[in-house]
Design a protein that fits this description.
This protein is an alpha/beta fold. The chain contains 17 helices and 24 strands. The strands form 6 sheets. The chain has a 6-stranded mixed beta sheet, with helices on both faces. The radius of gyration is 24 Å and the shape is globular. 44% of the residues are buried. Bound molecules: adenosine-5'-triphosphate. It is found in: Cell membrane. InterPro entries: AAA+_ATPase, ABC_carbohydrate_import_ATPase, ABC_transporter-like_ATP-bd, ABC_transporter-like_CS, P-loop_NTPase.
Length: 515
């Protein structure tokens, strides 16, 4: 690796209204390295990189690009792009109705030499095809973005940045939205890009991935810089400890609880879907009080539809779903909740939170009409505040101030607000947890997993839908696997169950897996 510093950020400070997001942190990049930036939710990673990308002005600090000090009074996204910095955000910024090609050249359209009014699509296509071939990306230039997969959208975002001349590419949690296969594909692409001299910043919570692809790793905690280490000089437990400031135990033993009556019965259920492979076809299983039933599978095999049907968010064509002793199929979501459903939805941004409201409101939203929050139709702000403060403390939501709006929260803390509301409310029988730790940092993963295990110990049945095999294995007592809308197998999570056996079922194989 050449030791030329492409980027150097020193003593950076950034204050938001309620929180000091970056507090004297530093960061640097050598040309052609993959440098991971890790830290708990809210540690300031995204803010630090958005500063480098010119999105936020800073209160104090210095940035050097290729050895030259940047005039920060004039620094913005435009200047960052000019300096060869590109960023792919957690949420993609593509126009769905336009084709991939149109999206890539949007705003920087090449024109024909003889007429500034005529777009030169041939030139654009040639330049883009060079990236596609060089980095072995599977991208269809003439498809509309609404018809391509999430993985392909991400590749389009990467090409968009390269097309604008990026040789420093910041990827903010790129694998959070990808299937394991798509993530592997992305790593292959990044590896070729690195060999080609592109410098890559990889923000991630998945320490296995970080250890697999990084050259160096920097750790932030509470807005501050903690350390930078070479991959070969560190280990996953050491990184976890640097991030969280204490030892983290992710492979704690799950509790063994005596199971009780069935709390959820799904009987020969058919659920429609816009995608053929996700239609649920004749699904039957039950979850008992005091057990965790894991639903494993590669994303898009009908798990999301199943979860939505149980929560009352999607119709059931045939069959029946029973919660406790009540039929809940084709009933309204609030009825299902009243029957005892606690729901951690897959999409916390759209369904889990009301982002324009405060943390207090979000933490008690489902109970606002009940005592003690509401008496004689009068809402008690004081009670709401008291309970929300309790839940903020108990579920370790940061920052602590309940007056904050949900929209300012980092990924993991936003998820903790949802978990706190759902598990904090009384009278629950079933916890439906869909991808509960996606995008969540390692300390919070440990916390959320403990809370799920605790819900089981307290007698709830838990239906855990997760694409993360490690998570399924850590928490589930029994596991069903979904493949193309059907249950491809059911296994007991005992010492005979292996990753390979489960992986085989996830790919639709038989795997003589009935253990
Ligand atoms: N636009 C904003 N307005 C107000 N506060 C913000 C804004 N963006 C971030 N914050 C706050 O700044 C802190 C740092 O957030 P940041 O998104 O940089 O963390 P992160 O390390 O990237 O976290 P995550 O891993 O959860 O994405 C958090 O407390 C967050 O709530």
């Amino acid at each position: 690796m050449q030791q030329q510093k492409t980027v150097e950020m020193k003593n950076i400070h950034k204050q938001f209204p309620f929180v000091k997001a970056v507090d004297g942190a530093r960061f640097d990049l050598f040309k052609g390295e993959i440098h991971s930036l890790i830290g708990e939710n809210g540690a300031g990673k995204s803010t630090m990189m958005k500063i480098l990308y010119g999105m936020y002005p800073i209160d104090q600090g210095e940035i050097f690009l290729n050895g030259e000090k940047v005039d920060l009074s004039k620094y913005n996204t435009h200047s960052a792009i000019k300096h060869g910095i590109g960023m792919v955000h957690q949420e993609f910024m593509l126009v769905k109705e336009m084709t991939v090609l149109e999206n890539i050249i949007l705003g920087v359209e090449p024109t024909k030499r003889n007429s500034k009014m005529a777009l030169d699509f041939t030139a654009a296509r040639k330049k883009i095809n060079h990236y596609i071939e060089n980095y072995q990306m599977n991208v269809h230039l003439d498809r509309k973005v609404l018809n391509i997969s999430v993985g392909e959208m991400q590749r389009v975002e990467i090409i968009k940045a390269l097309y604008r001349g990026a040789d420093v590419l910041i990827l903010d949690e790129p694998t959070a939205v990808l299937t394991p296969q798509e993530a592997d594909k992305l790593f292959e692409i990044l590896d070729i890009m690195r060999k080609d001299g592109v410098t890559i910043v990889f923000i991630s919570h998945k320490l296995k991935e970080v250890m697999a692809i990084s050259d160096r790793i920097s750790v932030m905690r509470g807005g501050k810089y903690v350390a930078t280490v070479h991959k070969s000089d560190t280990t996953i437990p050491e990184l976890a400890k640097m991030m969280v400031g204490r030892e983290v135990f992710l492979d704690g033993k799950r509790s063994m609880v005596e199971v009780g009556e069935p709390v959820l019965q799904v009987k020969n259920v058919y659920v429609p879907s816009e995608r053929e492979l996700s239609k649920n076809r004749d699904i039957s299983f039950m979850v008992r009080a005091g057990e965790v039933l894991g639903v494993a599978g590669i994303d898009g095999n009908g798990q999301s539809e199943l979860g939505e049907a149980i929560a009352g968010l999607r119709p059931v064509e045939k069959g029946e779903i029973i919660l406790g002793d009540k039929v809940i199929s084709n009933k309204a979501p609030h009825y299902v909740r009243d029957c005892g459903l606690a729901h951690i939805p897959e999409d916390r941004n759209d369904r889990g939170l009301n982002k324009e409201h405060t943390v207090t409101y979000n933490l008690v939203a489902a109970e606002i009409g009940d005592a003690p929050f509401s008496k004689y139709s009068i809402i008690s702000e004081k009670e709401m505040r008291k309970v929300s403060e309790e839940r903020i403390e108990r579920f370790d939501i940061r920052p602590r101030d309940p007056r904050n709006l949900a929209m300012g929260f980092s990924g993991g803390n936003a998820q903790k607000i949802v978990v706190a509301r759902e598990l904090g409310a009384p009278g629950k029988k079933l916890l439906l947890a869909a991808q509960p730790t996606r995008g969540v940092d390692i300390g919070s993963i440990e916390g959320i997993r403990r809370l799920i295990d605790k819900a089981k110990r307290e007698g709830l049945g838990v239906l855990l839908i997760s694409a993360d095999i490690d998570e399924i294995l850590a928490l589930s007592d029994r596991i069903i696997v979904m493949y193309e809308g059907r249950i491809s197998g059911e296994v007991v999570n005992d010492e005979y169950l292996t990753d390979e056996k489960l992986g085989m079922l996830m790919l639709g194989g038989e795997a003589d897996a009935k253990s």
